[in-house]
Amino acid sequence: MLLFFLFSSWNPFSGGGGESAGRRSQFPPKSLTSKKFSHSAQTSATPRHPIDPLTVGEIHRVRSILSSYEPFLGQFPAIQSMTIDEPDKSRVLGWQSGDPLPPRKAFVIGLLDNQSHLVTIDLESGRVETHEISSGSGYPMLTMEDVAAAVDAAVSYPGLEVSAAARGLSVANLSCISPSPGWFGPEEEGKRLLKVLCYSKQGTPNFYMRPLEGLVMTVDVDRREVIKFSDTGRGIPIPGGANTDYRFHPGNDPPEMNPINPISMEQPQGPSFTVTDGHLVEWANWEFHLKADQRAGFIVSRVVVRDSETGDRRSVMYKGFPSELFVPYMDVDEAWYFKSYMDAGEFGMGATAMPLVPLNDCPRNAHYMDGVFVSADGRPFIQPNMICLFERYAGDSAWRHTELTVSAGELREARAKVTLVARMASSVGNYDYTIDWEFQTDGLIKITVALSGMLMVKATVHDNMNQIENQEETGPMVSENVIGVVHDHFITFHLDMDVDGPNNTFVKVNLVKEENLEGKTPRKSYLKPVRHVAKTEEDARVKLSLYNPSEFHVVNPSRRSRLGNPSGYKVVPEANAASLLDHSDPPQLRSAFTNNQIWVTPYNRSEQWAGGLLTYQSHGDDTLDVWSHRYVTWLY
Amino acid sequence: MLLFFLFSSWNPFSGGGGESAGRRSQFPPKSLTSKKFSHSAQTSATPRHPIDPLTVGEIHRVRSILSSYEPFLGQFPAIQSMTIDEPDKSRVLGWQSGDPLPPRKAFVIGLLDNQSHLVTIDLESGRVETHEISSGSGYPMLTMEDVAAAVDAAVSYPGLEVSAAARGLSVANLSCISPSPGWFGPEEEGKRLLKVLCYSKQGTPNFYMRPLEGLVMTVDVDRREVIKFSDTGRGIPIPGGANTDYRFHPGNDPPEMNPINPISMEQPQGPSFTVTDGHLVEWANWEFHLKADQRAGFIVSRVVVRDSETGDRRSVMYKGFPSELFVPYMDVDEAWYFKSYMDAGEFGMGATAMPLVPLNDCPRNAHYMDGVFVSADGRPFIQPNMICLFERYAGDSAWRHTELTVSAGELREARAKVTLVARMASSVGNYDYTIDWEFQTDGLIKITVALSGMLMVKATVHDNMNQIENQEETGPMVSENVIGVVHDHFITFHLDMDVDGPNNTFVKVNLVKEENLEGKTPRKSYLKPVRHVAKTEEDARVKLSLYNPSEFHVVNPSRRSRLGNPSGYKVVPEANAASLLDHSDPPQLRSAFTNNQIWVTPYNRSEQWAGGLLTYQSHGDDTLDVWSHRYVTWLY
């Protein structure tokens, strides 16, 4: 059973502290080249598990096979994606440590002459097994090389020099970023586009705060040329960017606060978890497979918990990962309307995950894992230290009870809470998403998404609120000439739940008010739980409502406790948000997975990405919403 | 400005892990006596701040004044509450360290001849300043002595021996608890009642799991007699209680999991906070007054943050505390319908807070504070180690950003997150509430309520789910013959916000969909923030809605930033729940503060307790809902 589970937050106004708004895009990482081909003992190892990611050696092998593949002779495609083609679930579930690995296969998405080639390759035989050219809308995830090429094209465009000069700058003073264009109808079809926006980098590394407002260049990525140049903001000053350098310097003026003494999480005997063969994590009563992924960031697979009574290994989840993000901005100006990002499918949560900073991103004793990824030429590169794994003790109790009773005397029982956290952080342009999977010994798995980084801001002629009292602005003024534009962040997780096996059922337990109790009780009402077993996908599309609440259970009716209860997991949505955009609005069409907070679909190996496999400039014809509405699908 | 802010959760089904349901009541703490009069250096000190709680010496003084007060000569009232009568806010705000203290006064609630006497006393002059006899409904918070007396009366009731014998037990085998009766109309008025329920304590300290189902004794607390005895459950077996001993023994069989190595939070130079004069906490850029309270548990006052630019001390909140809890169970049987607890006003969150367990409830380097409370005879007693204060480092980053840019090279910036936590844990019978106030250096204050402890369960004749398929049960079967009855926990916080001073305004920023954009933009919709300044209390009654979302700002229009924005705080409700009971249902009437998730009322010194000052058996005539609907009150 697949469960798509939406997390979200909206950040219209950054009140008096805490999180604030903003985001977007990626500058060519020139230093990337030096990292290619770097091998580490950890990442160059032989694969040991059927779902282990492709190794450095395997990536070279795939490239070599593709190079001699007849259709690509003389015109090697740009490799937009190359991953392990995981064996069928039944095969993986049947495999045990020590068994020979199932055949290793790669799934490649290559781009050639504006066409997306979907190719599967058997590594042993060296044969291309399937080769399909996509006929639907959308392009594959961009490569870093695409981004670099588009920015290069934009910065050499003569109009940019003029626009920069009109603001007293030269192109050398600019940092340019390349957000995706979304999709807004026929005139943008048939070519891969990027929008390029520029900022003054003078005086601050936080160039995001210094936009050349109204300047937007539409670049044809493959032709490497600017096809549309628009500059409507020459009258808008570039915000000053004072005090926006975020880099830590020991010599910085101390902030107006008392110093905080050193504090750390210490484990004199070291951590209690082990990582075997690079990917298999074991801790307390948990076991799972953890790997980096260029698109999803990281993937947690084969999650197993040990039964506290029998010691049996019991399956919880086959696979879980961030499936897609949606970040629509609420400003319809020419330089803003298109900002409706789908970070996983457009840029990749792994591709944008820089190395974690020891002691600041993750505590002492953290174990780090690299990502082994693929660049556009089909060669491997290492994303070092992109995942960390650590035990957390936050000073909390896992369970407690105190009691004064005559019989038992004073009872004071408390257990300190220690958990295991797997973490990564993607910097998709200005915004940083930190994603945690946290495992508790009581069986709970908690997913947390934290936002950090910088705002994506809009410049304005105004530098004080009293000038804009009756004017329309699309967000609050956060500094002189700077508007923090209202936007949302939605992230949906793909959770392939296999609680005690694959045949799980989704149950909504609705709380219903019972009334008309006269004569039976002094109460006038109470709430009764009413179970609804979802029979079709439609039954399992959930819009959360505070005043019509339900619990959500994923149960296995074929595995009963001694009481006859099915085994199961409860899905608990915490703080959440809904997308209020028109369902026919192009950004909402493409990210229609945000139409509900929970969706349940029958297992389908091909339905991994809630925004579609080929997301870039897609028309919304391959989303979770489309799959779910295609026909009435019975969940059991 | 007062802001009442609701937290809640509902626990109908305990799914596959995590939190589960249950709760209630307090057995006479016989060991209490030994703690009376115990003095500690910390708690016997002279008061140093106008709002410091009464000291041991002051409590003795108040008792002595009351003993010679003419109306109480010869008939000393039972002291249900005795606290510092805080000076007027303006007086407290005007006071500075070193100034002489304003006159110390005590507010006493005494019970005499079934009447609640509200008395204020000036400690210096020794005079009773005001003396009022309550004419409204409701009684004061119970004392431990009330609870003990009621249970004593019940266990000596002859019918109990018969009921016990019918189940093969004697009274000596029982543990009895005394939940509050709620209020359900005229026949329960005019006398203070407790319901007494009994459990078999054989074989487990967790007697809550072994109810004598259907047995309920209604006790007149003041006459100390059982006035109603009901036993409808003799045919229902007492659940076995196997494996319910929750006490930790080093010799316990190890659970089926790998051991977890020691882990702790270490501060080689010690903690960075200071506590001056017993109550004044200073840490990083924060300063606040913290004290224990017999009813609220603890109170955070005079919260001040230092301005990061100027170093000025800026007011954030005058006073914050848990104002009331509401825990309605969803079962209308004779032995269950009344379970609709109001823990703060009925039993007291401080009165039920046992000492915290070092290293398991709070980490190493925590600082502990005692509560100085008052027993029914007016004498002081110490609740030792009932609050802890510690710095938390959970392995997270406070802020991070990484970036690859040509101009700046690779930037990897992250700051470890360290916060300050003030914690207490109340064990209101079976259920434990841990309440945290967490302060972040970026200005955020986060309140967290965690639930732990044991379920409040109902016995049933059934021991397997297959027997109850078509039968009505009011919750899931959690063990043989044990039903975990559906219930809610609502907790509302009283937040007297004084952001940069007292004249704050409440602003709802509603997100509204804008459509009909044809010709202006390729987008079909966007969301526009629309500000609604609350003019009356009615404007500020908030029912949260995912599909009609707002942000909630408390701003000070008279204090503007250099940009002209008012200073302010954002109130962020996280996961929440609504009460779905009939508004005319007696439990809902009494806890009508759960009719909305947020209420804002103008400052009124007497409106502290959202369920009313005299909550016990109240009729709902003195709740936040009543105050707010009394007349149209302008907020500014």
UniProtKB/TrEMBL annotation, chains A, B:
Active-site residue numbers = 343 (proton acceptor), 431 (schiff-base intermediate with substrate)
Chain spans, region Disordered: 15-52
Q: Which residues carry this modification: 2',4',5'-topaquinone?
A: 431
Cofactor(s) the protein needs: Cu cation
- Swiss-Prot/TrEMBL GO biological process terms: amine metabolic process
Superkingdom of the organism of origin? Eukaryota
| Top-level enzyme category | oxidoreductase
Q: What protein name applies here? A: Amine oxidase
Organism the protein comes from: Linum tenue
Q: What is the lineage of its organism?
A: Eukaryota, Viridiplantae, Streptophyta, Embryophyta, Tracheophyta
